[in-house]
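Researcher: I'm preparing a figure for a lab meeting and need a structural model of a single chain. I don't have an experimental structure, so a prediction will have to do for now. The sequence is pasted below. Please return the structure as tokens so I can convert it later.
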Amino acid sequence: MISILFKEISGFFTSWVAYLIMAAFMLVTGLFLWVFPDSSILDYGYAGLDSFFNIAPYLFIFLVPAITMRAIAEEKKDGTFELLATRPLSDWDILFGKFLACLVIVLLTLLPTLIYYFSIYHLGITRGNIDTGAVIGSYIGLVLLGSAFTSIGLFTSSLSNNQIIAFTVAVFLCFFSFSGFDSISSIISLQRIASFLTELGINQHYQSVSRGVLDTRDLIYFLSFTALFLFLSKTILGARKW
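Model: Understood. Here is the structure written out token by token.
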């Protein structure tokens, strides 16, 4: 599993696409945080990263599928997955290796955004006038969100040997999982179960964690969500033996 982990990470960073994806993420978040008037910290006048943590999940909907789309689909397309499966590795070893590799890449993409925190920390009228606890909670929320989206991306990548199809389906599932249930709960005929539908969506739990409160229910939700899609991916990979 460790060998697959390092192989996936090194393979990702040998392509210029990896740096393009990470640069695009930093560029878009930087524009929303410092340039666009509706979300700029400089215009808002409040030392906080709320605008960043509000826009980041929607960027993750495209970022994470772009990272995971090649994980299994490319192996199937090139015919190397069969060679990988002949090694003394179980399907779980292969899956966890690729999952951890993609999650590490997501974390490396998030790492440069810490400069936003330090910039606001030092630029405030009162130095350090920023809710550090809320920032830590929001970053934990993004890590959990990245984990959930990564499991979705691996699932869609295991469904097809076409990376574009894997990317498109993953974007749809990530978007629906994040905000689809909120939209469904707003239907008038479903108002009786609106709160239940909202709880099924990721957004409700992400917002809860982002407030800096680590509720056990939210952690269990994210872990269960990730485990579900990893299990589905394992089922798809195991179908070749049927």
